[in-house]
Amino acid sequence: MKNKPNKLKYSNKYKYKLWIIISAAVLIAFAGSLAIIKNRSWFEHTAKAIKINKSGNETFAPQFTVKSINYPDKILSLKKFRGHVILINFFATWCPPCRAEMPGIEKFYKAHKNEGLRVIGLSVNNSGPEAVRNFFKHFDGGHITYPIGMANYGIEKAYGKISEIPQSFIIDKQGDIVAHFTGELPPGFLSYYFKKYNK
């Protein structure tokens, strides 16, 4: 009879520890599910509505034509790239996240350009093309191989008044904006959308 209190004491300790373990497991599982949902929301995030016609419901990419900075004889036009998956990336030379993501964009472009990927970089610099050319010196080989042009006010306004950079838009083969991301592109973003729409 004297040992019963001790047994009860140990039993309560065991139950308490078991409760802590189960609670921790539930919390970890819940946190994991939130992470999965958050990650999925990145990749399934549809484009913001860009009002370009009277209905205001279309996500058709606003057209533009600009001269390339790194390919002086080349004119950049969405119409010329119709039928391809296109990445439009708005950046500035003074923007650290822009500089951080560009090598990744360059690498992905080189790996998939023969599969139909097209990339257009659009600088929002007020200092002009020369500042962008000097900016290229920070990268391997002193240049970026995907074409880059200067964004003007009309282009920025058409794409939602580019007030934050970097901003990236994915355009499908039909010319519709299918994804829009503000900030440095997360790992897997380009791969996910290129595979999804390059069919």
UniProtKB/TrEMBL annotation:
GO biological-process terms attached to the record: cytochrome complex assembly
Top-rank taxon: Bacteria
Keyword annotations: Cytochrome c-type biogenesis
Keyword Acyltransferase among record annotations: no
Subcellular location: Cell envelope
Thioredoxin domain mapped to chain residues: 55-199
UniProt xrefs under InterPro entries: Redoxin, Thioredoxin-like_sf, Thioredoxin_CS, Thioredoxin_domain, Thioredoxin_ResA/DsbE_sf
Gene Ontology molecular functions: oxidoreductase activity
Gene3D superfamilies for the chain: Glutaredoxin
Pfam family, one: Redoxin
Transmembrane segments: none
Main location: other
UniProt keyword Ubl conjugation present: no
Entry-linked PROSITE patterns: THIOREDOXIN_1 (PS00194), THIOREDOXIN_2 (PS51352)
GO cellular component: cell envelope
Name of protein: TlpA family protein disulfide reductase
Species this protein is from: Acididesulfobacter guangdongensis
